[in-house]
């Protein structure tokens, strides 16, 4: 979840790192810090707060040197404090370490190191790494071997970068958490995600799990277990830096919502042979599971309905963090479809691990090419949404949905019909997302922005989207929002409805949607009904029209809710792109 970035080259490193950290801030933003090497010294500045604030206070950019690294934190071990910010150092401040991940056996390691006389100054698990390396150096190993041995002592998922006073480069290693080497001209970048250095190079080398890289002159890759050298290929990625900028928009979130004018079209531009091949695998499989977390999980849950309605095919949605509990149902004939924007979500990767242990084939829908999930999957469909920087997922959601529809239609032997529906949907979204539409939603946001609770109901295909709508509203506006299956309200939650309680009702012309009766029940108890769908109904107090796209309604219905969440957040003065307590890439379990 934390963002890490390093640089070895000829340029002044500190300003470059500040820039990289700002680009990685979506990964964590409760504290940050930088370490540079210069004049035989390790220079460190760090504190609580976002990069700009800490830079304003401490002038991070002023640190000397051409080698260094920086970290932006999402706290796991130890509260948010200056002491717990990274970099962390050894007893003599000779070794500096930044880390993304969790060390599961850190208490044992810390106890052991303390017994050997190491002095700890933070509550982080990361500090253990600095002392372990120090210990291994004391026993006579060189830095490279000391880092390798230390990494082999850690349990859990980690990505680290290490600097040592006097060592003219950096060493990075990973076991689980992502790490990528950017290759420039006589300069190298190391980061947890490509946007950190996309404005400098599009050439990358991926570290796989259990690998380390020594960046001192030409980078050398080694296996962590046996220390053997590894050959790596340079890959050119097709994102450009501009795509990862906000442009004229105030926030990434609104930019990304509006990009849905094009992203669905891009998503469905897939190799049809591959879609048909996978559809065939789905049809042949004995037990198909769909898994993802959070918003991506709601996409999977929608997929369950889509496969059922379009292809008469039973697929099972299981949230990734629970998937390993289903391992007894897995056989070699099972198929697992995973959905993840980042391709780095730890719970999803654990689900894949559990599946692979049973010989299950894994097919993934991923946005980030080269991500861990992309590389461990048997087949990947890239959703082609371009970089998604706002923590709240929007354009990736609808792109993922579109590909699940394609697969379902292909399973039913109706790929062309599915493609036609999605093309029509994409073009109607293009029309819908106009400034007048946004103004109308803003007006609604003004009306309800002081409310404490928002309810959102849907049925069938739109039930998971009701759950997703609630996620969007909560995370961006901090208003408590809850999604329900329309039919469930009367079994309890309707007790919460008071005069004026906003209730969003997702409707569709899909032959399954008899939710109006539920809306009436809420209205009869004083609820303020916000209808979303193609057809106005007298029960609606406010109507957010969406195009009539039949079975594809979840794709269009979630968009006005994304816009509403955005404007609620703006009106309430929330941190739209980096909501409190969250991080974009959840690389811890
Ligand atoms: C919410 C949101 C999260 C992610 C979840 C999985 O807006 O973005 O719920 O969907 O953390 O992330 P990925 O898709 O990267 O696996």
What report would you give on this structure?
By secondary structure, the protein is α/β, with parallel strands linked by helices. It has three domains: 3-243, Glutamine Phosphoribosylpyrophosphate, subunit 1, domain 1, CATH 3.60.20.10; 249-431, 3-Layer(aba) Sandwich (Rossmann fold), CATH 3.40.50; 434-578, Glucose-6-phosphate isomerase like protein, domain 1 (Rossmann fold), CATH 3.40.50.10490. 35% of the residues lie in helices and 22% in strands. It contains 17 helices and 25 strands. The strands form four sheets. The protein has an eight-stranded antiparallel β-sheet with strand order 3-2-4-1-10-9-11-15, covered by helices on one side. A seven-stranded antiparallel β-sheet has the order 5-6-7-8-12-13-14. Strand 9 and strand 10 (188-191) form a beta hairpin. Helix 12 packs antiparallel against helix 13 (415-432). The radius of gyration is 25 Å and the shape is globular. The N and C termini lie close together (10 Å). The structure holds fructose -6-phosphate (F6R). Residues 293-296, 340-342, 345, 348, 392-393, 471, 475, 585-586 line the site of fructose -6-phosphate.
Question: Can you summarize this structure?
Answer:
With 589 residues, the chain is an alpha/beta fold. The chain contains 17 helices and 25 strands. The chain folds into three domains: 241 residues, Glutamine Phosphoribosylpyrophosphate, subunit 1, domain 1 (4-Layer Sandwich), CATH 3.60.20; 183 residues, 3-Layer(aba) Sandwich (Rossmann fold), CATH 3.40.50; 145 residues, Glucose-6-phosphate isomerase like protein, domain 1 (Rossmann fold), CATH 3.40.50.
């Amino acid at each position: 979840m934390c963002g890490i970035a390093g640089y070895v080259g000829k340029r002044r490193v500190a300003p470059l790192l500040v820039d990289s950290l700002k680009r990685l801030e979506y990964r964590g933003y409760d504290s940050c810090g930088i370490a540079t090497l210069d004049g035989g010294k390790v220079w460190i500045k760090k504190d609580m707060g976002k990069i700009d604030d800490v830079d304003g206070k401490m002038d991070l950019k002023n640190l000397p040197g051409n080698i260094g690294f920086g970290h932006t934190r999402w706290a796991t071990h130890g509260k948010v404090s200056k002491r717990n910010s990274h970099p962390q150092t050894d007893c003599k401040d000779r070794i500096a370490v930044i880390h993304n991940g969790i060390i599961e056996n850190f208490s044992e390691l810390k106890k052991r190191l303390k017994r050997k006389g190491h002095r700890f100054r933070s509550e982080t698990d990361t500090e253990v790494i600095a002392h372990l390396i120090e210990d291994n150096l004391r026993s006579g190993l060189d830095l490279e071997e000391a880092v390798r041995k230390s990494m082999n002592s850690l349990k859990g998922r980690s990505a680290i970068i290490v600097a040592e006073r006097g060592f003219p480069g950096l060493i990075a290693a990973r076991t689980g958490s992502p790490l990528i080497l950017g290759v420039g001209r006589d300069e190298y970048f190391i980061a947890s995600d490509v946007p950190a250095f996309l404005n400098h190079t599009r050439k990358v080398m991926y570290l796989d799990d259990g690998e380390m890289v020594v960046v001192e002159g030409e980078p050398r890759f080694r296996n962590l277990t046996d220390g053997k050298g590894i050959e790596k290929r340079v890959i050119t990625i097709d994102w450009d830096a501009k795509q990862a900028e906000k442009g004229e928009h105030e926030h990434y979130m609104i930019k990304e919502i509006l990009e849905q004018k094009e992203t669905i079209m891009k998503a469905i531009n897939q190799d049809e042979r591959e879609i048909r091949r996978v559809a065939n695998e789905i049809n042949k499989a004995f037990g198909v599971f769909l898994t993802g977390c959070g918003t991506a999980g709601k996409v999977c849950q929608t997929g369950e309905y889509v496969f059922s309605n379009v292809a008469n095919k039973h697929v099972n949605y299981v949230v990734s963090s629970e998937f390993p509990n289903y391992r007894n149902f897995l056989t070699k004939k099972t198929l697992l479809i995973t959905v993840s924007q980042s391709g780095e979500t730890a719970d999803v990767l654990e689900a894949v691990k559990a599946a692979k242990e049973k010989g299950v084939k894994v097919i993934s829908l991923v946005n980030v090419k080269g991500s861990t999930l992309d590389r461990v999957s048997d087949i990947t469909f890239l959703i082609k949404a371009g970089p998604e920087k706002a923590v709240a997922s929007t354009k990736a959601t609808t792109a993922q949905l579109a590909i699940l529809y394609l697969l379902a239609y292909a399973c039913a032997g109706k790929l062309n019909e599915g493609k036609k529906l999605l093309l029509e949907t994409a073009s109607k979204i293009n029309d819908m997302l106009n400034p007048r539409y946004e103004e109308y939603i803003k007006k609604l946001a003004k009306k309800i922005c002081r409310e404490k609770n928002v309810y959102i109901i849907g049925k069938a295909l739109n039930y998971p989207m009701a759950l997703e709508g609630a996620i969007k509203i909560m995370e961006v506006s901090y208003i408590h929002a809850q999604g329900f299956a329309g039919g469930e309200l009367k079994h309890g939650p309707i007790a919460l409805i008071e005069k004026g309680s906003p209730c969003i009702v997702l409707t569709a012309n899909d032959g399954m949607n008899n939710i109006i009766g539920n809306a009436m029940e809420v209205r009869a108890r004083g609820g303020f009904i916000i209808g979303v769908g193609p057809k106005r109904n007298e029960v609606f107090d406010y109507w957010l029209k969406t195009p009539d796209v039949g079975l594809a309604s979840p794709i269009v219905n979630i968009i006005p809710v994304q816009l509403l969440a955005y404007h609620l957040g703006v009106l309430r003065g929330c941190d739209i792109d980096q909501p409190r307590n969250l991080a974009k890439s959840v690389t811890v379990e």
